[in-house]
Design goal:
Length: 67
C-alpha cells in the first residue's frame, strides 16, 4: 500500500497507451501540449474535468462520484 493514500482501496486497474498523456500534462503543468489549436484546447479543458492527479497517479471520477 502506498503511504500517500493509506485508506485507499483498489477497485480497477487499466493499462493504457499514451492516450492520457495530454490530460496528465495539463493537470501536472497547467498548460496544453504544444501545437494545440483553439478547438483542441477547449476539448482538453472539458476532458480533464473528471480527472485528478494524486501522488503522481491519474484518477478518473466515476459516475458514482468515486475516484
Amino acid at each position: 500500500m502506498e503511504e500517500g493514500l493509506p485508506d485507499a482501496q483498489l477497485f480497477a486497474v487499466r493499462v493504457t497507451d499514451g492516450h492520457f498523456e495530454d490530460i496528465i500534462h495539463f493537470l501536472m503543468i497547467g498548460t496544453e501540449p504544444d501545437g494545440y489549436i483553439v478547438q483542441q484546447k477547449k476539448e482538453l479543458v472539458v476532458r480533464v474535468a473528471d480527472f485528478s492527479v494524486i501522488v503522481g497517479h491519474l484518477y478518473k471520477m466515476g459516475t458514482d462520484e468515486m475516484l
